Amino acid sequence: MTLQHMERPVGIGTHEGTERIGAGGLGMDFQRLTVRTTVRIISRYGVLVGFLALWQAAASSGWVNAAVLPPVDMIVAALWKGLAGGSLLGDIAISLQRAGLAFAAAVIIAIPLGLVMGQVRAVETALDPILQLFRQTSALALYPVFILLLGLGEASKVFVIFWATLFPLLLNTISGVKEVDPKLLEMARVYGARRLTVFRRVVLPGAVPSIFVGLRLGATTALLLLIASEMIGANKGIGFQVMNAQYNFQIPLMFAAIVILAALGLIANQVLVSLQRRLCRWNDPVS
Predict the structure, then answer these.
(1) Between residues 172 and 39, which one has the greater pLDDT?
(2) Would residue 75 count as lying in a domain?
(3) Same domain for 97 and 169?
(4) Contact in structure between 283 and 209 (CB atoms under 8 Å)
(5) What's the CA gap between 28 and 23, in Å, rounded?
(6) Do 105 and 41 fall into the same domain?
(7) pLDDT tens string 125-140
(8) Tell me, what's the pLDDT at 104?
(9) Does one domain contain both 87 and 62?
(10) pTM of the model
């Protein structure tokens, strides 16, 4: 047997062994990734899934009154019927329009005013007493006043949402401006930066994280007041559907409307978190 004949099987065997080891390693890596992903999903959504499973079992088994707390599958069926049939789509559109107009108006007014109040002490001193007075007054308590002034139409509904949304955004903007590191401001002035440059390069970037906190609080507040405003003198909207379904004892539809409101809140929060991460890559936002 020559030396070539002796070397050839060794080479083939080594190559096959390497392939087996590589395939085995890939398989183990895939298994580890699958296990980690499963553990992550369970740790994040396990409690929620368990809660829904318990709800379904309790309602289906008669542990609770199914007429008051219907099973999850009945709520999902009512939700699908409302969305597929289009009966809930119009309500979602009108609710988003009301909340969107109020939220946009609050952003346009609160952020510039908060930036001014955070930097100019005279403006803050003059406006702070009336701001604190209105902030401590519930928007729902003022809703009858808004109805008397603006009527039962869209104006009063949009304004009460705007009123409640304004203050979280305004206060967080003021707080964000005041929390900018004084050393950064001093350094910018030492290097001869003008006031507008200091505002654009130091104050505004430093206040953005706090502004986004106000935006997220404001979005949540807008949805909460949306429900209350649509329960009085409305004939369209998700809040109206909640009350109307309760009056007509359509409990699965009522819960379906509540699920839609929760989903809208989650979507709005996630959009703002994603936007904050894009604009503030140097600062990890709290989700």
Answers:
(1) 172
(2) no
(3) yes
(4) yes
(5) 9
(6) no
(7) 888 888 888 888 888 8
(8) 93
(9) no
(10) 0.76
At 209-227, the pLDDT tens digits run 889 988 998 888 888 888 8
Of the candidates 202, 205, 200, which has an alpha carbon nearest to the alpha carbon of residue 188?
202
Residues with Cβ within 8 Å of 106's Cβ and at least 6 positions away in sequence, in order, are 162, 165, 166, 169, 218, 222
The total domain count for the chain is 2
pLDDT in tens, 45-64: 778 888 888 888 888 888 88
Residues 170, 32 share a domain: no
CATH code, 150 = 1.10.3720.10
- From CA 12, how far away is CA 26, in angstroms rounded? 21
- Do 89 and 63 have their domain in common? no
Instruction: Domain of residue 269: give its range.
Output: 83-283
pLDDT for residue 109 is more than 80:
yes
> Are 96 and 61 members of one domain?
no
Based on the domain organization, do 109 and 167 belong to the same domain? yes
Residue 16 has pLDDT above 60, yes or no: no
> Which carries the bigger pLDDT value, residue 174 or residue 280?
174
| 54 and 108 assigned to the same domain | no
